[in-house]
Amino acid sequence: MKFRFLFCFLFVTSILSAQKYATRSGKTSFIGSEETFEQIKAVNNVSTAIVDSSSGDIAILLFISAFDFEISLMQEHFNENYMDSSKYPKATFSGNIQNFSLEELLDSEKDYKILGVLTIRGIEKNVSVSCRLKKISKGLSLKTNFNVSASDFDIKIPKVVRNKISQEINIIAEYDLFEKL
Amino acid sequence: MIFLKNYKRSLLALGTLMISLWFLINYAYKKEVPVSEKVAIFSGEISGFINANIAENSVVVLKASVTAVRNKELVLGSVISVQYLESESQNFLDVEKGDLVLLKGIYLGYDDLFEEYKLINCILLDDE
Question: Rounded to whole angstroms, how far apart are CA atoms B103 and B121?
Fold first, then answer.
């Protein structure tokens, strides 16, 4: 009986001590073209992310239709023709920040590697990306910049616009995560 | 006059081209309709909103009590996250926890990470 009580106590305390850092307003942007007359770029300012500081586990979710383009026609095409956002409304990432330790974070940026699974248009792809982490007041800042291939996620680019839209999409994410209460 | 007669066809073609270009540019660069001018497909309270199974990216009007106020966002009834545009910051300045608010925004979808419904680009219609 005593052993069972001790086990339950340890289990509950381990969950409670697993401190989480989160944001609901992460900035994720992408650039999908070379320097052309009208660059294809968009920003999503409502990305959500959670980092478990005890394990380094990270989860990110963003709504495709929340990507904001300067040209609304471009946004329309992006959602309807390329991303099919009514069928696949979300993109997610779940992974682990390798060798993560909250105590070792500094006020200056430090490089880390994240291994995980990126899911776009319902297609899962294992990815390994570099990121920079630093300590901020009551939280941590995460920045990453990496490329994904449109063909990996079955994003079809018509021949007529192939010289304007690049096959490699550059994704930039900047999240300030704060203690999740 | 002679000039106009000689180049009648070319001028007509040029005119048509200019008009087509004007329409094309206007179509491509059309401004997005602000939330305030969009028609809401749902208007009511949280329980009705959840049960209505509303399509993503729909405009909704909600009346609910504020259960938390965070940086540039509110939580309604502990299940709806509300985010507003920078331009609306001044209007949301006086909103406090416990207030009953009436707001209009775009329902983005259900956030599985936070287990809450997400409204964006919200505007405040009333704050009691």
Answer: 10
Q: Extract the tokens encoding A55.
A: 């394990």
Q: Which residue has the tokens 């289990």?
A: A11
Q: Chain B partners of A60 at a C-beta cutoff of 8 Å?
A: 113
User: ipTM of this predicted complex?
Assistant: 0.80
Domains defined for chain A, CATH in brackets: 19-179 (2.40.128.110)
Closest CA to A174 of A144, A138, A140: A144
Residues B103/B62, Cβ–Cβ less than 8 Å: yes
**Each residue's pLDDT tens digit, A162-171:** 777 778 899 9
The residue whose two tokens read 């259960």 is B67
DSSP states of A76-144 as a string?
A: HHIIIIIS-TTTS-EEEEEEEETT--GGG--SS-EEEEEEEEEEETTEEEEEEEEEEEEEETTEEEEEE
| Cross-chain residue pair B113–A72, CB shorter than 8 Å | no
Q: In chain B, which residue's Cα lies nearest the Cα of A79?
A: B57
B73 touches chain A (CB under 8 A): yes
- Segment B97-112 shows an average pLDDT of 95
CA atoms within 13 A on the CB side of A93: 25
